[in-house]
Amino acid sequence: MGPEHIAARTRARWRPGRTLCVPYPSRLTGRNNTSDPAEMPTAHHGKVELFFDVLGSATDPTLLLINGLGSQCINYDEQWCEKFAVQGYRVIRFDNRDTGLSSKLDECSYALRDMAGDAVAVLDAANAERAHVMGVSMGGMIAQRLAIDHGERLLSLTSVMSSTGEPEYGQSSREALALVMAKPAQTRDEYVDNQIAERRVYGSKPEWIDEPYLRARAARAFDRCYYPAGIGRQMRAIKSDGARADGLGMLTVPTLVMHGDRDTLVDPSGGRRTAELIPGARYVEIEGMGHDYPVAVWDRWVEIWAEFVRSVT
User: Fold this and answer.
1) pLDDT tens by residue, 203-257
2) How many CB atoms neighbour CB 216 within 10 A?
3) Domain range holding 168?
């Protein structure tokens, strides 16, 4: 398939899943997500409903993106996702439970294994028997648990800026942890300001911090669905999963591990340890990158991932 044919496939629009929170206008679809629910795919895992988007052709291999703590699927920017689609992949992004437009589980506890089950439900709803799976931060932990429990569904695993659940690896700096544990923002402006403050502590190098872009993205996330109550339950799910060292050591799925050398929220030792445990895993540490994915690293990130996937499939 030539580049011109792959590029043509990226013109396929996001197909939004059902909204359960504040609707937002999609830049790609040009329509509001409160369209007729009968026309919109929704993944179900028991009583949990999961919003998801699909970009690309159903005939292409699937790439499933899993978000981090409290992070909505729109953090995987549409233009960034398009770069994966140009490589010839159908991209799926979804809101984890307790986040964005997916179900909110007040007074309900759950485990990381349940969140991995959510990812399986999304694959089922999207008719993807197997997929390349990429998880970032908590999403990397979910992806690891998915590979351990449902390895037959993965074509490859990519764990980014994540760790193994072992307490001696991937620890946060005192300053970074204080920001994560701080009282949630009470207003839109406070939320946006906090996002910028966090990037200056555990984000990429200063010249890669595009403040106007980050402020616009944070405002969009707040308006779409700001739901800090879910973060505590997601943190408990992480803690309850414990160490995944034994399970990771048994994996046979081709694995790429990526980390930024400036990450102070999840120390790079977490990524190095992940790659050490998984047989045959490839480890890539990106100089200048922190616990974020700035526009400046998009092309390199996609290039590293695409080269790896081509080498193992």
Assistant:
1) 999 999 999 999 999 999 999 999 999 999 999 999 999 999 999 999 999 999 9
2) 12
3) 3-312
Q: Report CA Rg, the chain.
A: 18
What's the pTM value of the predicted model, to 2 decimals?
0.90
| Pair 17, 50: CB distance under 8 Å | yes
3-class secondary structure per residue, 36-63? CHHHCCCEEECCEEECEEEECCCCCCEE
- The Cα–Cα gap between 173 and 101 comes to 31
- What Å distances lie between residue 159 and 20, 21, 78, 148, 285, CA to CA? 28, 29, 20, 13, 12
22-46 b/e with 16+ CB inside 10 Å = b?
eebebebeeeebeeeeeebbbbebe
Please give the single-letter amino acid code of residue 118: D
Mean pLDDT computed over 163-185: 96
> Could you identify the residue written with the tokens 């979910």?
142
**How many domains are there within the chain?**
1
